[in-house]
Structure formats: C-alpha cells, structure tokens
Amino acid sequence: MSIDRFDQINPPARLLMGPGPINADPRVLRAMSAQLVGQYDPAMTGYMNETMALYREIFQTQNQWTLLIDGTSRAAIEACLVSALSPGDKVLVPVFGRFGHLLVEISQRCGAEVHTLEIPWGQVVTAKQLEDAIVKVKPKLVATVQGDTSTTVLQPLAELGEVCQKHGVLLYVDATASIVGNELLTDAWHLDAVSCGLQKCLGGPSGSGPITLSPAFVEHVRNRRHVEAGIKAEHHTDSQGAIIRSNYFDLPMILDYWGEERLNHHTEATTMLYGARECARIVLQEGLDKCIARHQLNGEALAAGLTGMGLELYGDQSNRMNNVVGVVIPAGVAGEAVRSSMLHDFCIEIGTSFGPLQGKIWRIGTMGYNARKDAVLTTLAALENVLRRAGFNTSPGRAVDAALTVYGA
Amino acid sequence: MSIDRFDQINPPARLLMGPGPINADPRVLRAMSAQLVGQYDPAMTGYMNETMALYREIFQTQNQWTLLIDGTSRAAIEACLVSALSPGDKVLVPVFGRFGHLLVEISQRCGAEVHTLEIPWGQVVTAKQLEDAIVKVKPKLVATVQGDTSTTVLQPLAELGEVCQKHGVLLYVDATASIVGNELLTDAWHLDAVSCGLQKCLGGPSGSGPITLSPAFVEHVRNRRHVEAGIKAEHHTDSQGAIIRSNYFDLPMILDYWGEERLNHHTEATTMLYGARECARIVLQEGLDKCIARHQLNGEALAAGLTGMGLELYGDQSNRMNNVVGVVIPAGVAGEAVRSSMLHDFCIEIGTSFGPLQGKIWRIGTMGYNARKDAVLTTLAALENVLRRAGFNTSPGRAVDAALTVYGA
Q1: Which one of A35, A72, A78 has the shortest CB-CB distance to B23?
Q2: A12/B43 CB distance under 8 A
Q3: Which range of residues forms the domain containing residue B341?
Q4: CB proximity A190 to B under 8 Å
Q5: Residues of A within the annotated binding site for substrate?
Q6: Where is the Aminotransferase class V domain (chains A, B) (predicted)?
Q7: How far apart are alpha carbons A19 and A325 in whole angstroms?
Q8: Which of A16, A174, A220, B306 has its CA 20 to 30 A from that of A238?
Q9: Nearest CB partner across the interface for B1, out of A57, A75, A106
Q10: Cβ contact (<8 Å) for A35 and B29?
C-alpha cells in the first residue's frame, strides 16, 4: 500500500441539512483543537465539573449526576438502559418510529422483558394510552424517544412523566434529536434519565453522549454493587445477583469517576469533552429559550418554503419537531436522484428515510449551527431548482418567498 | 448559575510524561478541526476506507476487517469480547497486571466462564504455562494484554499465538499501550483480534478504538445472527440462542456499516475518525519500524537517566515496554508530593500507580509525540531538581548526562 495516496483531511464544503449530523459550529471545532491534559489534572477535573454544570442548564435539571458518556448518542442510550435493566425486568416502550425500535432492541440485549406500545408511524402516544399499558404491564421502566427523526414527530412528555410518577415507574427519554431545538424540562416533567448527543441541535460532532440521571434513577442503578477491574473485591450486581452487562457503560462506576471519589474508569475522551463543553456554552450564551425559538422559526420557514413550492409535508404537523421536516417525495420524481443532484451540484445534503418510509419521504433538517436563515433559503432555492429540472411543476421563487414571509422580511 | 464563569477552553501547557494520555500531535488536532460531512457522503466513506487501509499497516495485517470502535480503548476491548463470548463460553486470561484484571472483569460481564492464569505482577507468561492451562481449561478464547502499563511489562506474543493456533483457540490481544511503540505482528503471530486506542504511542486523544479481526474471528462472531433496531426481523444470536449483549458494540452490525453494505448503525464519530486517520498517517510517514525504534531509543535514554540519578527501576527490564518505565519511589520520599511539584512547578505530569503498586512506583512514559529527546531530558532535569529538594541524594546533572550517552551525544 502506498500511504502517499492518502492526503491530509480536506472534506468538501457540505451544507448538512439532513436529520443529522449537521455542520459543527466552528467554535466547537476550535475548542476541540486545544491540547490535552492528564486525566486527573486539576484543569481536567475542573472542565468536567463545568461541563456537568453547563449540561444541568441544557437538561433543565438540578440533577447532580449530569455528565458525558464517551461514545455517540447510541452509547448514551445503552449506558442508561444496561445500567438500569436486570434480566427479566419489565420495560414498556412506545414505538412510533425507528428509534423506538432501537430502544426495544437494546432493552432486549439487556435481557429485559420488553413490552411495546405500537403507535402508527407519524403519530404520538397519549398519556391515557401509556397509563393503560402501565397498569397492564406493570413495568419497572418506560423508555421513549422525544423527537424521532425517522418520522419528524415530537412526543409530548409532560403528561407521560406525571403518569410514570403516579405509578412509581422510572421514565427514560432519548432526546438526541430534540434537545435545545425543542423544549425539554427534565425536572418539571419528572424524567428520570435523559440522554442525547452533540450532532443535532447542539451543533457538535457525534462522539459524546450527555446524560442526566435523577436521584431515584441513581439509587436504582447503585443498588447493584460495584467492581473496578478486579481491584475491588465485589461485582456490580443487583439483589438477584445479576451483574451489569457492560463495564464500559456501568453507570455507578462512571459516576465514581465524575464524582469526588475520582475512581479510575476509562480514560476520558478529552477532546470530545472540550467539544461538548463548547456546544453547551454556545447554546447558553445565546440563551436556551432563544435557541429553541430560533429552531422553531427556521423550522417554520423551511416548512412554509416547502409547502409554498407545492410539496406535501409528512406526519402530524401539530406534533412536528422544530428542527426537521418530512417531505413527501412527489409522484414521478426519483427521490435518490434529487438527493444526489442536491449533493453533487449544490454540495447540500438532505436526508433519506428508513423502514416503512424508505423512498417515500425526504427529511430536511435545520438545526444547531445550520438553523440559520441563509441555510434555509439556500436549501429551498437549490431544491426548487433541482425539482424543476426533475419535471416537478412549481413556480420559480415561490419557496423562498414563502419562507421570507415567515422570517418577516 | 452564571455561565459567564466558564471561559473558553484554555488548558495549561502540560508535558504529559505519564503512562498516557499524552500530548496529542498538533497535526492530529488540526486534522480534527476539519468540518464534518454526512454519514454516507462519498468523502466520508472514502475516509473510512482509507482509515481501514492505514490501520492494516499499523496492525501489520491483511485482515479486511480493520476499523474503529467509537469509544475509548476500553470500548474497543469490550466490543471484541462481548461480540465473541456467549454466556458459558470458557475464556482463559493471563493476569500479570491491572489490565489483565480488566479483561477478566469484562469477560465476566459477558457471562463467560473465566479462568485466570495468575502471574506475579511485573513478570510475563510463558508459552509453556499458557499451553498447560489451555490443555486443562479448553477455552474458546484466550484474552491477554500486550503491554500492561500498570507494570510496564511487555508480554511476548509470537509463541502464545502459535500455541493458540495449535489448539484451535482464538487469541484476543489488548495492544492499547504498546502499539507502534513496540513490535506487533498481527498476522505473523496469529492474533485473531487486536484492539487499541489513540492516546498512547499513536499520539492522539482518547475516544477512538482501532481494532483488527481475523477471518476466523469474524466467522465466529457472524455465526450469531443479525438484527438492526427491529427493522430486520431476526436477532443476533448464536446456536444456543444467546444474543450479543450490546447493540452499540455488536461487531457484525458494525462491520455491515464499515463494509460495502453500508447498513446504518450509529452515526460515526467523524471528528475522532479524522484524528485516528491522521495518527496512522503520521506513524506511517515516519515509517512503522522507525517509529518503534524512536520509542525504544527514548525509553532507553529515559531509563538510563533514571538509573543514572540513582533510582531503581521496577519490573523485569528484559521484558519492559519501550514506552513506559516504572521507577521505585525512594525510601523517605513522598511520592505524591514529588508528582505534585513536577506538575505545579514544571507543568510536567508523571504517573502514579494502582493496586499492589500504589505508592510504590511512579510510571514515566515517553510515547507518541512525546517520544522526543527534549521531552525526556526536560523530564529528567526537572525530576532531579524536585528529588534533590525532597532530600534525595543525587549528583546534579548525572541524569541528563546518562541519557545523553544513550542518544550518542
């Protein structure tokens, strides 16, 4: 092999307007270029503590245990579920899109007894539906997605949290695609564990998974005893002797590293921590409410532009995520050819879709650094151009005009 | 909370001369500051393929399945073990340091029946010892560490590989701390799975775990069937119906993402991939043999300087890793006070130690970007100064003189 073939990293200048990942905020990339410090350096533990404080604001919580999992958003999901679920534990999962299926599948890997509450894709679950299922199943944990990018639908959570609290059931929420682009109130809504990632509205690269854990959730996972690499004598088991099925994702051990004990676990992914910290700083400097409002404005402008072009939106628009819009691929238009022209002619990425929606909708996102007027207008103008060349009948300029109306220009 | 308290990332200018993490090569940090592209962008899949080719050189293998796990080196260990081991499978682990204990503990989490071959810390296992244990235990897999930084000892692997091949046992090796600082020949030594991380001799930040898998290892893990998030109908189970206990670390699914099928798994940690790719480029541009020789030279100079200062080295020096030296803390010297003075007066980090060696040795590393003459001499001069002020009797300048002799100056 000639390694000379492989030049330095020099990616094309994409505008990433799919369901994520999106372009990272340049400030995040600059923060990630800072040099490393040691795992227990006072500077490092200081940055860890600051990151915990910043993400308490992001998650809108007083939870002490608010920290990062060293992996992508999926790693953060798995850390929450594998630490909470013992074999045979009952889990209830509302499934209304692809990422509900993922929660089912991960729970099954944990050996849990998984019950699903199947909702048609594009709809949400009601508190009544959830309560009926809880009464029937009597689960230890309910696991749900907040914003499922596969359908663009945002699950309302306030009432679900109340129902879970009333029945003494722990509630886990995957907020990867929704956080800081949509309202999320961990404490007010009684959410026991919430996880996310950086690569959506937080404006960073994939590879770090912020989580927050309620005192009740932490007490539950800590009832399993603790082991560190044979150095301690005991294993981390629950009262039935069931060990947590992962060392890397063993939350009690990870908490002992992030907490004052500073017990050694894996070497923290320092550069990703620098990035996660900067993502939160950017959002909080703008103001969390303003950040969410910005996502709402740009999402509405995008939706208005798409309908103005004569396209049909997918799913229940009254429960649509602010930051991603599903667009029905018009009859007679080759969906993948349009995406390819957007990418190769305009360097703009829009999203395909999965499962039952494959080939039926595109998903267009406006999130994080790319929740900007220029990004939305550029995408609309390019898409209109590509669609007209693909034979779709639309009047030039109508998409951008409709979006500009939303922006108030 | 006032977020204004938290300024931009601006870490102190440490010289990291512990057992890792070490300072990242500035080239790696620059590569990681490149903007993102989409998960299936031709540029992204191109970079993934190039990364696979680069790490085949690093691992000295023809293995097709040579790729990155999105997490730290510990994540890469767990991905190999959890994908290979079904509940009840017999594993044999030689334990001669902290990281052997970690392999035991992770294997137990997988539900395996774990047998250990206990070797006194600071020594290595012989092929005869391993073969006797294999004959007795009849394991499916042997899991061992190559370079255990807890003891600074390098386990010779060529004969172990032969023994495992002879008995039809799979051999997994954790090469996190040793790779590119010490010889590692995956194919020539018949290693079936090898994992590592970036934060040691590869000169990058923690957070990406390169692995390579032999065809036999891949065939073994693929004998478990496959599921993706409920989209596919089947679960990933072996002939006994035992499911792989992790979705995130399910190697057959990850291979289908890195392979030509490009099936969706988690969103690749793009920035970490940029970093991992640059780490490998730097090593291969220097030349792998030259890189290992540079670690050997600097490790010898460091060891000579330390003994020249009148310090005693720890462990079997005939099997010492090139890139880390254990130093016995002299009687009457407060080990942690010395480390603290090194950090706060000189901004140099040297390592403490764990378990039975806690408080008994320091560990000083010279690896990756920090396997340099100036870094070694600076560390020796500073340590000599700190030790003299701590009451240790040594002649000024002898440490650096002894190191310079090794450098041939």
Answers
A1: A35
A2: yes
A3: 288-407
A4: no
A5: 363
A6: 44-339
A7: 9
A8: A174
A9: A57
A10: yes
Determine, yes or no, domain membership for A345.
yes
Is residue B244 a contact partner of residue B236, using CB atoms and an 8 Å limit?
yes
Answer yes or no: is B388 within a domain. Answer: yes
- Number of domain units in chain B: 2
Whose CA is closest to A14, among A295, A350, A386, A299?
Answer: A350
CB proximity A247 to B under 8 Å:
yes
**Boundary-marking domain end, from A250, A283, A316:** A283
Q: What phi, psi does A93 have (nearest 5°)? A: -125, 110
CB within 8 Å of chain B, chain A residues 59-88: 70-75, 78, 82
Cα gap A168→A114, rounded to integer Å = 18
CATH, residue A181 = 3.40.640.10
Tokens coding A26: 């340049």
**B11 touches A: beta carbon within 8 Å:** yes
Q: How far is B25 from chain A (nearest CA, A)?
A: 9
C-beta of residue A380 within 8 angstroms of C-beta of residue A306: yes
Determine contact: B267 vs chain A, CB below 8 A.
Answer: yes
User: Chain B interface, mutation test: which of A60, A109, A285, most B Cβ atoms within 10 Å?
Assistant: A109
What is the spatial distance between Cα A107 and Cα B131, in angstroms, rounded to a whole number?
A: 39
Q: Which site among A1, A14, A35 would you substitute to test the B interface, given the most B Cβ atoms closer than 10 Å to its Cβ?
A: A35
Query: Do residues A247 and A328 both lie within one domain?
Result: no
Residue B9 lies in a domain: no
Across the interface, of B18, B39, B53, the residue whose CB is closest to A21 is B39
Q: Which two tokens stand for residue B294?
A: 């540079």
Give the DSSP letter of residue B267.
P
Contact state of B248 with A108 under an 8 Å Cβ cutoff: no
Tens digit of each residue's pLDDT, chain A (409 residues): 566 668 999 999 999 999 999 999 999 999 999 999 999 999 999 999 999 999 999 999 999 999 999 999 999 999 999 999 999 999 999 999 999 999 999 999 999 999 999 999 989 999 999 999 999 999 999 999 999 999 999 999 999 999 999 999 999 999 999 999 999 999 999 999 999 999 999 999 999 999 999 999 999 999 875 433 333 434 445 555 578 999 999 999 999 999 999 998 999 999 999 999 999 999 999 999 999 999 999 999 999 999 999 999 998 899 999 999 999 999 999 999 999 999 999 999 999 998 899 999 999 999 999 999 999 999 999 999 999 999 999 999 999 999 999 999 6
Closest chain A CA to residue B237:
A109
State yes or no: cis peptide before A396, omega within 30 of 0: no
Domain assignment present for residue A108? The answer is: yes
Query: A205 to each of A22, A79, A280, A369, how far by Cα in Å?
Result: 8, 19, 13, 11
Closest CA to A36 of B231, B12, B327: B12
Q: CA nearest B276 in A: which residue?
A: A9
A163 and A50 in a common domain: yes
Do B35 and A9 contact (CB within 8 A), yes or no? no
- Is B2 within 8 Å of chain A by CB? no
How far apart are the CA of B66 and the nearest CA of chain A, in angstroms?
15
